[in-house]
């Protein structure tokens, strides 16, 4: 084959990959990953974009010059991607941020791949139809599942509220811009020539059908929002604004970095914990929820990528608006603008961010075919020094052609720049994918019955990809559970063998090491510190200073989520367990101060007072609990029994009547106890302390050893 044929094959392969990605994206999901919907889409786009980058690199090597389609959007898109990646590298939860920032960067690279892969209007129409048909098929699946027609053979998704985007809100947001595109396309085509020529105009037919089916998909998902048992919840806008402004202005440890670069792309969940106001506890239905997304994508960007990243995003939007001035409105312009407007009003998952930049790519190609002077082909190559070092050629709207005297050095350098990070990211993406599948398998009901199999799968998952703190967090609990199971398997009154003791100690040490690894990977995630505190708490009477380490770890979790009353109840529970009832009383009272209708805080306070012998005040707290639990039958019956028993012990003592209304979304009443308690095994063993706060996340985490022999 000559060079022209090879380039033709490369162009065809790139076009097919882009078109297939656009069609498959909204309907692609996997049931053998921890996240059925977003993670598979991230992996799909990242790996296919890596292939597209390699194909483009081979093409420029053959042509001996770097050619691409330039537009007024390229620089702001590049700037947004560069700042986003920088925010992740500067984040304290670096790995958590990189796991979200890198998929976004590859969405932006896909934008460039799309703009350079559509070389004629026929390809443009086919790819755009693929985008619309992907939305159509996702709508059809929502419809048939709503009718209890389960056409896919996956048990995990056999319910009528299933949607291929995981959330009906995100599905609606995804469909609205595509609907605007199809409806406006049909409107403009109809006003121009009515239905004449419709039999041979396949694009016209596709967009008519798409308009109807996508509108049906929007209606179906609206129905699912209102009638599904667990309604999706969006963070109220006022809290989104407060958290966004606090995240860039109140981080005393890194004030300038937070202002400019935020907390790191994709880390809003830690911003929510750190900067939510105390008034959030008054929100009855959502006070105990954790939000991974802000009230809108724009507010989330303010918190996570700071002023610079937000300005880069607005720069893209400004260029879009500017491009539509002084020209008739096109369907693609309308779709892009609708997507950006939605980003100011609603939260965006990865799926909608992908759609935003895919539509921007189509709009760029549309402007090119409309001969817009701001979009043109550009070629850059290295030439002989006597002619200058670089040759930059504006090809206008013609396809670039190789020139004599071009050097292959510059394309080779660009190829290396493209290939090295592509292979690196592709390699780690595959490892993440395999790791996630193993970890998901370890948590399946069939495997959970076999502790050894669960252990082995999670150990293999961590060896494949040791950069996810949630993996380590779960693995630490598996080690504790295995140690506890082994201890309980020893007959009562019989001394454990030396091997069994060594196995228990090894499992406990590995549990602590895994919990500490989670903290080092994501030091700002309060869940990691809370998990470490629970590990230490389960080792009280087994490990030296375990009670001190438990309290210190939980205090760090509280420092990262200072308005969460449940954390104070748990810290009070540690003191209660140790018999330090005054200290426990202080923590339970603090929880009540944060949430005056928190029934479980009053309940634990009552038990602390009862343990101190202050039965009168204990009865007062139990009466408050009774008032708060009056609409919860199980809690009400439980507290009534305890009140009756306490009254008998207290003689004629009477508690004052509670006048508060019933609390909602409270959970069961229970005295805070360790989730697992390892019994004493002789002399307390030495255990490592929690990591020092502010310690940088290590670049490699300790790989867990093989399961100790049992």
Spatial order of strands in the largest sheet:
1-2-3
Helix content: 55-70%
Alpha-beta content class: mainly alpha
Strand content: under 5%
Number of strands: 3
Q: What spatial form do the alpha-carbon principal axes imply?
A: elongated
> What Rg, in angstroms, do the CA atoms define?
30 Å
Could you spell the SSE succession in H and E letters?
A: HHEHHHHHHHHHHHEEHHHHHHHHHHHH
Uncertain parts: 384-388, 694-703
How are the secondary structure elements laid out?
Layout: H1 3-24, H2 38-63, E1 66-70, H3 74-90, H4 94-117, H5 121-146, H6 168-193, H7 202-227, H8 237-249, H9 255-261, H10 268-275, H11 297-324, H12 331-345, H13 350-369, E2 376-382, E3 390-396, H14 409-442, H15 445-448, H16 451-464, H17 469-488, H18 498-521, H19 526-538, H20 546-560, H21 565-577, H22 581-594, H23 599-612, H24 615-628, H25 633-650
Antiparallel strand pairs: 1-2, 2-3
Care to describe what's here?
- The protein is an all-alpha fold and 710 residues long.
- It has a domain at 3-420.
- The protein has helices at 3-24, 38-63, 74-90, 94-117, 121-146, 168-193, 202-227, 237-249, 255-261, 268-275, 297-324, 331-345, 350-369, 409-442, 445-448, 451-464, 469-488, 498-521, 526-538, 546-560, 565-577, 581-594, 599-612, 615-628, 633-650; strands at 66-70, 376-382, 390-396.
- It has a three-stranded antiparallel β-sheet.
- β2 and β3 (390-396) form a beta hairpin.
- The longest helix has 34 residues, at 409-442.
- It is elongated.
- Mean pLDDT is 88; it is low at 384-388 and 694-703.
């Amino acid at each position: 084959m000559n060079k022209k044929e090879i380039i033709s094959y490369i162009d065809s392969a790139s076009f097919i990959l882009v078109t297939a990605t656009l069609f498959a994206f909204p309907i692609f999901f996997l049931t053998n990953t921890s996240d059925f919907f977003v993670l598979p889409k991230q992996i799909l786009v990242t790996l296919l974009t890596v292939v597209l980058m390699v194909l483009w690199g081979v093409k420029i090597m053959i042509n001996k010059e770097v050619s691409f389609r330039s537009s007024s959007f390229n620089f702001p898109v590049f700037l947004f991607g560069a700042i986003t990646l920088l925010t992740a590298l500067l984040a304290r939860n670096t790995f958590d941020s990189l796991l979200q920032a890198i998929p976004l960067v590859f969405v932006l690279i896909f934008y460039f791949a799309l703009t350079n892969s559509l070389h004629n209007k026929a390809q443009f129409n086919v790819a755009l139809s693929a985008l619309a048909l992907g939305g159509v098929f996702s709508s059809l699946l929502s419809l048939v599942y709503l009718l209890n027609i389960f056409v896919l053979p996956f048990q995990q998704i056999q319910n009528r509220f299933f949607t291929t985007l995981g959330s009906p809100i995100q599905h609606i947001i995804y469909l609205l811009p595509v609907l605007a595109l199809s409806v406006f396309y049909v409107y403009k085509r109809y006003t121009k020539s009515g239905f004449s020529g419709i039999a041979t105009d396949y694009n016209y037919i596709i967009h008519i059908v798409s308009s109807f089916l996508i509108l049906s998909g929007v209606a179906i998902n609206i129905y699912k929002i209102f009638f599904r048992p667990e309604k999706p919840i969006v963070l109220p806008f006022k809290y989104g604004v407060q958290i966004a402004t606090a995240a860039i202005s109140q981080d005393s440890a890194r004030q300038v970095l937070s202002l400019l670069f935020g907390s790191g792309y994709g880390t809003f969940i830690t911003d929510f914990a750190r900067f939510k106001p105390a008034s959030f506890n008054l929100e009855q239905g959502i006070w105990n929820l954790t939000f991974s997304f802000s009230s809108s994508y724009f507010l989330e960007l303010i918190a996570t990528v700071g002023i610079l990243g937000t300005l880069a995003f607005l720069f893209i939007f400004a260029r879009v608006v500017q491009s539509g001035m002084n020209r008739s409105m096109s369907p693609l312009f309308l779709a892009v603008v609708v997507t950006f407007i939605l980003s100011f009003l609603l939260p965006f998952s990865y799926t909608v961010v992908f759609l935003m930049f895919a539509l921007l790519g189509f709009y760029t190609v549309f402007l090119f075919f409309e001969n817009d002077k701001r979009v043109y082909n550009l070629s850059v190559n290295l030439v002989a020094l006597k002619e200058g070092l670089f040759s930059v050629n504006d090809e206008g709207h013609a396809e670039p052609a190789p020139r004599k005297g071009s050097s292959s050095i510059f394309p080779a350098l660009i190829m290396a720049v493209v290939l090295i990070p592509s292979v690196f990211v592709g390699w780690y993406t595959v490892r993440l994918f395999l790791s996630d599948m193993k970890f998901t398998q370890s948590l399946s009901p069939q495997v959970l019955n076999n502790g050894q199999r669960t252990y082995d799968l999670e150990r293999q998952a961590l060896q494949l990809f040791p950069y996810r703190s949630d993996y380590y967090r779960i693995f630490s609990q598996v080690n504790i559970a295995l140690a506890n199971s082994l201890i309980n398997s020893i007959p009562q009154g019989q001394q454990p063998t030396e091997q069994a003791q060594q196995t228990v100690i090894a499992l406990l040490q590995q549990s602590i090491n895994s919990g500490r690894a989670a903290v080092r990977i994501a030091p700002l995630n309060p869940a990691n510190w809370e998990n470490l505190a629970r590990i230490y708490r389960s080792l009280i009477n087994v490990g030296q200073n375990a009670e001190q380490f438990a309290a210190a770890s939980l205090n760090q979790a509280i420092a990262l989520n200072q308005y969460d009353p449940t954390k104070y109840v748990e810290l009070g529970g540690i003191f209660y367990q140790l018999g330090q009832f005054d200290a426990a009383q202080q923590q339970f009272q603090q929880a009540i101060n944060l949430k005056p209708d928190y029934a479980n805080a009053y309940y634990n306070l009552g038990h602390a007072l009862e343990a101190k012998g202050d039965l009168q005040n204990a009865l007062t707290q139990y009466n408050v609990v009774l008032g708060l639990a009056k609409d919860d039958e199980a809690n009400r019956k439980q507290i009534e029994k305890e009140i009756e028993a306490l009254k008998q012990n207290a003689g004629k003592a009477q508690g004052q009547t509670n006048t508060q209304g019933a609390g909602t979304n409270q959970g069961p009443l229970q005295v805070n106890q360790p989730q697992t308690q390892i019994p004493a095994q002789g002399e307390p063993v030495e255990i490592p302390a929690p990591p020092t706060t502010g310690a940088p996340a290590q670049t490699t985490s300790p790989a867990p050893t093989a399961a100790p022999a049992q």
